[in-house]
Write a structure and sequence with these properties.
Layout (H helix, E strand, L loop, with lengths): L1 E5 L4 H12 L3 E10 L14 H8 L3 E7 L6 H15 L8 E3 L6 H14 L2 E3 L7 H10 L3 E7 L15 H14 L10 E7 L7 E10 L2 E11 L2
Parallel strand pairs: 1-2, 1-4, 2-3, 4-5
Antiparallel strand pairs: 6-7, 6-9, 8-9
């Protein structure tokens, strides 16, 4: 099975990538969508530059597509990019499917499935409807190292930006999520993550940067990314 992984560099797409390798599949590329406008209903914006280094530490090809972020056209833009490379590019020729880290967003999952149907390939969502807390706990137990790369909900202040999520912080996050009634896995857009190490990485990624905070929300701006030897 030759598959590509749609990756934002976050916990769910990184886990989906690892899952695909455990199936014995040939992960031919990580595909990152860079949004050139301010927002997207489909794709994560903060921290996506880390995916290129994730591709290097997993010995996986890296493809980057620039999309407008326009709700009416962004999936068509992505479909056209992938379709052209399936015809002409060496990397995606013979592609059997696309793997994503979709958890519970019917909006995202259905639009990716529609794209895959158009391209006559399969769509795989291995994390679909996983229990929120168990998913976060499994990430830690399986050796994933991740930081919160952005926060945008009540209960998560500036101090959480750039924080690593380990067992101690997960317990804190669980208590806060119950108090403020948000999803502990961030599936509702409450936060985004960036993965700096994982079981399928050959090296950890070292990050440098600073926090950007404005009116109750913020993100970690990477100023340097390098591979730890």
């Amino acid at each position: 099975m030759r598959v590509a992984v749609l990756s934002s560099g976050g916990k769910d797409s990184a886990y989906a990538h690892w899952w695909a390798t455990l199936q014995g599949w040939d992960v031919v590329s990580l595909i990152t969508c860079k949004i050139i406008n301010d927002d997207s209903m489909m794709f994560q914006i903060p921290g996506t530059q880390i995916v290129e280094l994730q591709s290097k530490v997993t010995n996986t090809n890296y493809l980057e597509f620039k999309l407008t972020g326009n709700e009416e056209s962004e999936m068509l833009e992505l479909s056209n990019f992938i379709g052209e490379l399936m015809k002409e590019g060496e990397v995606l020729q013979g592609l059997d499917g696309v793997v994503t880290g979709a958890l519970r967003s019917d909006y995202q999952k259905s639009r990716i499935e529609l794209m895959c149907n158009t391209l006559e390939i399969r769509s795989f969502s291995p994390l679909w409807h996983n229990n929120s807390y168990e998913h976060m706990k499994n990430l830690i137990d399986d050796g994933f190292k991740l930081i919160l790369s952005s926060v945008s909900c009540d209960g998560l202040d500036e101090s959480w930006i750039g924080e690593k999520i380990d067992n101690e912080n997960l317990d804190k996050l669980a208590r806060i999520s119950k108090k403020y009634r948000f999803n502990i896995d961030g599936e509702g857009g409450e936060f985004e993550t960036s993965v700096i190490d994982a079981p399928h990485f050959t090296s950890e990624i070292h990050i440098e940067g600073h926090k950007i905070w404005d009116k109750g929300r913020g993100f970690f701006e990477f100023t340097a990314l390098k591979i730890n030897n």
